[in-house]
Design a protein that fits this description.
Length: 337
């Protein structure tokens, strides 16, 4: 790989790769069809934490385990990063006894009531993760792009990439865009669901498809919800003094559940719905690493992009700029398919 990098996709993953690579001394160009963070990154619930027990195994387990630590590192490097460390409360989402993982604890109804005082009926138990938080995903992306620029990166928004260019020897030579060719000795495809289409003409199959994710925004009283709440009905958090954000399936059922779950929520009203097309690799795990059949090509596409972006960006930069082989990415390579 060469440290002359062309990063395709200025969502949160591409922005993180660009920032960390530029910080490490690479010559970086970040190109996107729109504005940084304006695509599927904007459609994330953006809960930052280790997550439930169901995602504590698999190739990305080591990355998830460091998610909050990586965000705190990034927060120190980029002052003003829009992160809220509220903690999270989870209950009733699965049958059976609760299971607490690292950084989590089982709390009783009295403790739940102190953490979420407007709950009508605090559950008998919940999993409390005090180190969890949430971010403004577009704000984080914009801050990463600012950081990349501060380290010399060039940013080309509103420039759709149409193809990856190769030289006569088959090595990557940059990209074709609607505005003409852009040179680059290494191309990082961090373009979400579009990554598959960009890889196909090169004979590369990147098994990633669209996964719809629905978010609802509600008008609500200030302080109605204090933590990130996760239960059978919704993932829910307060994103502004009078705004709630929910990740769920049905606007009617979610609105009814919010009103019945919290005191003072009788007048909560639905303001809008967003459906994002998030990238989903075939096995649900990140696809990150060099493409052996196309020298100079590197892929970085993942479903839990907002959660894992700081870690993935740092590790990808180490592989591209320093020539390291990162063990935490060993199970995420494209050649597993």
């Amino acid at each position: 790989m060469s440290s002359d990098l062309m990063v395709v996709g200025a969502g949160i993953v591409g922005a993180s790769v660009a920032y960390h690579a530029a910080q490490a001394g690479a010559v970086v160009t970040l190109v996107d069809a729109g504005r940084p963070g304006a695509g599927v990154t904007a459609d994330s619930f953006a809960w930052i934490g280790r997550g439930p027990s169901s995602v504590r195994t698999g190739p990305a387990a080591a990355l998830r385990a460091t998610a909050t630590e990586e965000y705190r590192r990034l927060e120190a490097e980029l002052p003003g990063l829009p992160v809220t460390w509220s903690g999270s409360l989870s209950w009733g989402a699965v049958d059976g006894a609760p299971e607490a993982g690292p950084g989590q604890e089982i709390v009783d109804a009295a403790t739940v009531a102190t953490l979420e005082p407007t709950l009508r009926q605090p559950p008998e138990w919940a999993v409390w993760a005090p180190g969890d938080g949430a971010v403004d995903p577009v704000g984080v992306t914009e801050r990463l792009v600012e950081g990349a620029r501060a380290h010399g990166a060039r940013v080309r928004p509103d420039t759709p990439v149409t193809a990856v260019r190769r030289d006569a020897a088959g090595r990557v030579a940059g990209v074709e865009t609607a505005a003409g060719p852009l040179p680059g000795a290494t191309v990082v495809l961090a373009a979400g669901v579009a990554t598959a289409a960009l890889g196909a003409p090169l004979g590369i199959r990147v098994p990633v498809g669209p996964s719809p994710a629905t978010l609802f925004q509600f008008r609500a009283p200030a302080g109605l919800v204090r933590t990130v709440v996760n239960n059978r009905d919704f993932d829910l958090r307060q994103v502004a003094a009078n705004r709630l954000l929910a990740a769920a399936d049905s606007p009617e059922r979610t609105l009814a559940a919010v009103r019945s779950t919290f005191r003072g929520a009788e007048n909560v009203e639905l303001l809008g719905t967003r459906v994002g097309v998030r990238p989903m690799p075939a096995d649900g795990e990140p696809i990150v690493g060099p493409v052996a059949d196309v020298p100079g090509l590197y892929v970085a596409v993942l479903h839990s992009a907002v959660t894992l972006a700081p870690a993935v960006g740092r590790l990808v930069a180490r592989e591209l700029v320093d020539g390291a082989v990162e063990p935490a990415l060993a199970g995420c390579r494209l050649d597993r398919f």
